[in-house]
Amino acid sequence: MGFDEMDVDTIWMDGEFVDWDDAQVHVLTHGLHYGSGIFEGARCYETERGPALFRWEEHLERFYDSAQPYEMDIDYSAAELTEATLELIQRQDLSSCYIRPVAFYGYNSLGVSPEDCPTRTAIAAWPWGAYLGEDALQNGIDVMISSWRKHASSQVPTNAKTTGLYVNSLLAGEEARRNGYAEALVLNKEGNVAEGPGENVFLVRDGELYTPGLSESILDGITRDTVITLAEDLGYTVHDNVSISRGELNTADELFFTGSAAEVTPIRKVDNVTIGDGSRGPVTEDVQSRFFEVVERRTDEYDDWFEYV
Q1: pTM score, two decimals?
Q2: Active-site annotation holds for 150
Q3: In the list 15, 39, 203, 288, which could disulfide-bond 264, CB 3.0-4.6 Å?
């Protein structure tokens, strides 16, 4: 579904609410030429108490942390961005939505150095269902190992959610789709499993969960952290600082992706190798069920993870 088909008409940009079509930048914007921007992806869920932003505080904290390596000064406080986001959702009468804050170096000069380029900040929100499809949440997806490797933390700050770095994600994801797969899995420079183009990955073996550690060139995913917490509270053992070889994927009992967009999505095949019995496994289903129970507020637990609109 394209944006033109969605019931959204407003974007918050540099302190003002503007019409969707008027949220524009100059063609010589530094961020457009050099990828010098940072962003977040968060969700707002429909609940009995009204729309609720999920782990918004953690998303904003990562947003500001991502700006640090680029010496990017965001001119708005966390409280101001929160107020703008809540009003944006209210103005568009959204009961649930995906939220995209972005900050980038704007137009001034076009040298590689962003010196004297202003920092632009914007927030958009729009309805967005299951990122990889509603069917994927139940039946899982097929993925391929990408020929593109994940950039290393010695090359770029992998703990920052940087716009330019997602060229790597674009290449991996489109390669997978051209070959008939729903998504890619990306290996790091050592040849171990890193993550998906926009997701962290979990492996299940003998009833225990494994996920690559931060040293494996992954983004410190907020949904990843959520799943670790929920799984441990359900009684599962979680190994969250491990290396996973490519070969271990083929012998896994279960695999699944996590992410703000992907939520908890089972993986049924890797490079045409069937994982487990080729369906959503029992551990994945248990964790996924608990995740949606929490985010849809069908339980009073973890209420401190939510900011109500």
Answers
A1: 0.95
A2: no
A3: 288
**Backbone angles phi and psi of 183, in degrees to 5:** -160, 170
Burial code of 6-19, b = ≥16 C-beta within 10 A, e = fewer?
eebebbbbeeeeee
Phi (first) and psi of residue 229, to 5 degrees: -65, -50
Taking only the tens place, the pLDDT of each residue in 123-134 is 999 998 878 877
Tokens of 102: 């972005």
Structural domain range at position 159:
134-295
State how far the Cα of 249 lies from the Cα of 142, in Å rounded to an integer.
13
Check whether residue 170 and residue 204 sit in a common domain: yes
Are 309 and 44 in contact by the 8 Å Cβ rule? The answer is yes
The angle at the Cα of 304, spanning 217 to 57, to the nearest 5 degrees, equals 45
Cross-strand partners of 186? 195
Q: Which of 103, 126, 149 is the last residue of a domain?
A: 126
Q: Give pLDDT tens digits for 66-95.
A: 999 999 999 999 999 999 999 999 999 999
DSSP per residue over 63-99, as a string?
HHHHHGGGT---SS-HHHHHHHHHHHHHHTT-SSEEE
